[in-house]
User: What shape does this take?
Amino acid sequence: MAVIRFIFDGVREMFRGPREYWMWLMALSVVVLFGAWRYSEQLTSGLVVTGMSDQVSWGFYISNFAFLVGIAAAAVLLVIPAYIFDRKDIKDVVLVGEGMAVAAVTMAILFVIVDLGRPDRLWHMIPGIGRFHWPVSLLAWDVLVLSVYFLLNLAIPFYVLYSHYRGKEPNFRLYFPFVVIAMFWAISIHTVTAFLFSANPARPFWHTALLGPRFIASAFASGPALIIITLQIVRKVTSYNISQSVIDLLAIIMTFALQISLFFVGAELFTDFYNEGAHAASIHYLFLGLGGFDSLRAWIWFALALNLIAVVILMIHPLRRKTLTLNIACVLAFIGIWIEKGMGLVIPGFVPTPLGEIFEYSPTGVELSVAAAIWAFGMLIFTLLAKAVIAVEQGKLRYHTKDVKYSL
Amino acid sequence: MRMSRINIWALGSSMARLLSPTDKAGFRTAAASYLPLVTLLFCSALLPANAEESAEPSQALRFEGYPNAPTVSVVPRKDELFFYPCDQCHAAMEPNPEIRPLNAMHDSALEHGRGRIWCTSCHDLENRNFLTTLLNELVDIDEAYLVCGGCHANRHKDWSFGAHGKRVANWQGDRTLYSCPHCHNPHSPAIKPRAPKPAPPVRAGLRLELGIEHEKSAIWDSREEHEDQ
Amino acid sequence: MSNGGSNFDKARRNFLRGLGMGTAAVAARPAWGGETFQDAFADFFQKDYRRMSAEEIAAALERIERKAKSRYDVEIDCQNTPPQQGVVYGYAINISRCKGYRDCVHACVKENNLGRDSQMQYIRVLQLDQGDFDLEHSDHYYDPETVPVEGKHYLPVQCMQCDDPPCVKACPVEATWMEPDGIVVVDYDWCIGCRYCMAACPYWARHFNWTVPEIPAEEMNTNTHYLGNRPRPRGVVEKCTFCIHRTRKGQQPACMEACPTGSRIFGNLLDPDSEIRYVLANKQVFRLKEDLGTEPKFWYFSD
Assistant: This one.
């Protein structure tokens, strides 16, 4: 069957390339294997090898999870201009963006799995044979929307690429409804993830209606930052044609999103500090320290500084159009939001505890290794998917009824 | 309606005076002056008797527990009292009601009430095996709560209904309670401070960091410092 | 709902015990974390408590007993006492009586087979300054020579057994729920250890087994309940169950029995003559974080 051939050809394409490509894959694999080894420690001894405690019961893993769902959602920023506004330049890269979404969702789900106390009981979530507490539990919602988003971002590109592989144009009327669904779904995955946190009045730091908007805004700032850097790398290492207008559009979206995101931070700071009550204890801990504990303070101010520098660069048109300064802004914004939305979001929710205790958290070597491994795995997935996508899009991969040698 | 003795006596004496031989004028005057008195006395004889007149207390005014209080049994204490029965020694000793410092083999200092009460406020002077209430009723040592409740009525009510004190073993079914002296030594009822059990542990692999003591002064303590604001 | 303890169930249990022993003799080498392969297999596929039949629950109880034997070398009795009809438990603490001894905390640790090497203590006693009720000013680790310390008062906190529990809503696999007698329970064999319920709880009442609970064999309480104090595995959440293995049989919870000052009052909220109802009707009671609407079945008062 042609589909089998397509998959076979695609996979073969993924593992074919110049020496630099293989070195990249090897480097990522080493990190993955090292992290997997340390994860086995966690499986044998339990989560006691992490730095989490009853007081701070979510840590580095969930921090990365929250951040990565945002990256996954940002793929929609390519989908909307490509299909709704029918921009041809974006259409060329939308499949790469969807590949990034797949990688990001995979990473997010992996971060949840490594955080579980009993990953062997994952089947308990399967509706029917297990108990799936949907629609009441926000975590059940998150599992549902992430799984469907994963499938959507595999299925739609699969269909489009397969059509191109067969030398035809995909049937617009067939896949466009799914594209529309995927657009709304992207917003929903991140809104549901925000609701996961904001649904808890037990945690005043998270219990704000602003958390959903903050998540979307920071996702639309950090996502494009990653896509801009990635597309430039792709452009450099492959001969794939990526138009500068794509980068420009993403940079403008990123500018607006970062401005809004910083405005939201300002709104939070004002609301909590103007009449400071007990509900502000967490943000006080984060920004100013509390009771002599301040391990996150340096980080959050650093993150805020990075974001402010990034937004200033982006708001100055000549700097935004210049590749070097744009890249600097992207890196700064990415790191800044990763700190602010990762550890800067999850940990203060637990400090102080509902009984007023301040107990700090810092990730252990196991957590850092496993996290690095998951990021490497995500990059690996993206690399392999992008390799196949680009090969198809450049016309190098086509279905032939006869066996024909390909030229590289 | 029964006649009081005084009224009967008054009636009788007034009737006797009426019937005693006097001069005609005196009799008539006596009769006239005694008539309102006799009427009054006759009427008052029809009224119910006065309480002050009775020798023992009226049934309705004797404490018989709180209405609707659950049935409870109380853990006895006699077996725990080394010196009980007290008559072993006190039967041979002359009761001395004078309030004075004591030098006895058992609890004799009284850190209870700041001088409002004395041994015989609770221990019956004549019969040392028993306690005594405010109304001088004898109370068995195992029913000490009746004595305590005489002054600590709110606490006694709470205890009767289970809002104070300790119930034994079960929450359901028959109620057995500990009597007051089980926890409160009546001669020194304040519960003495004792060492607490250990503080909570930290998860294996983590260390407890104690932060700085926050400013805990009550707002009235820091008022002087804020004078200039 | 399940029920254990009928003659039929006992017969079944004996049969399964015999069957288990037979096959265990064959595959008796403990390998899967100390369990036989057969037990590990059955454990993996075990259904959640509310969907298990009486036989399945009986078999699960057997496995728990075998696991305790292999892991701690103790013979325990794991039961499944059902809730009593017409009973909903309520608890009240008289905070003017509490002196901060922590007798309740340690009695609970022993009674409920809590792991000794973690923060696993269902009850936490807070020391607060007189005139202050701000929990953020509380001291959890007080360790003076004697208690009560002059100028301080004490507040014990444990699971409030909320009537509208946020933890029950949070759980993605419905491993925690409120039983008919009001106790919020956890099926430790169903929990996946995501700890979302711990984030959702406003009273810090839920605790996690970061490692296998370390219980000294000689201190193991052998009178256990499936939903309560039977030895729990690693990687799952647990919490106070109002001593479900005791209270369903009419006994006081261990914390109440241990308290020397009689500060703790427990009983049936549906019984108008109970002590707890008297307290609610006659004392000025309050609940923690009342404004969150969780409807705790745990009150405080002072007098």
About this structure: The interface with chain B takes residues 48-49, 51, 53-54, 290-293, 358-360 of chain A (CB under 8 Å). The CA atoms of residues 17 and 282 of chain A lie 50 Å apart. The two ends of chain A are 24 Å apart (CA to CA).
